[in-house]
Write a sequence for this structure.
């Protein structure tokens, strides 16, 4: 989560993207879709996998970290877990 000294903001998630080192590199990912895929115990629609969708919103700092907003806030157990960044919607 985005946070300050005493507050944490659950509606804003920080993502570190592979190969992105600068704020300018991160700009290409703005607006791209993010999927957090996890496995649940109960099977729904013949699958134990579930997805939480989000969107990359803006940069966070100068080292290529981005802020993402998910439709539902991701749980703390997802911290440090991999997310999939989709290459759409594309502006090319």
């Amino acid at each position: 989560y985005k946070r300050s000294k005493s507050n944490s903001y659950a509606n804003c998630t920080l993502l570190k993207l592979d190969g992105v080192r600068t704020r300018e590199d991160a700009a290409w990912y703005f607006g791209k879709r993010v999927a957090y895929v996890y496995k649940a115990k109960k099977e729904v629609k013949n699958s134990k996998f579930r997805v939480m969708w989000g969107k990359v919103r803006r940069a966070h700092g100068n080292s290529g970290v981005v802020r993402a907003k998910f439709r539902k806030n991701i749980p703390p157990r997802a911290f440090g877990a991999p997310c999939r960044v989709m290459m759409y919607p594309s502006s090319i």
Remarks:
- The first helix runs from residue 23 to 26.
- DSSP finds one helix and seven strands in the chain.
- The first strand starts at residue 2 and ends at 3.
- Strands lie at 2-3, 8-9, 13-16, 33-44, 47-59, 65-70, 84-85.
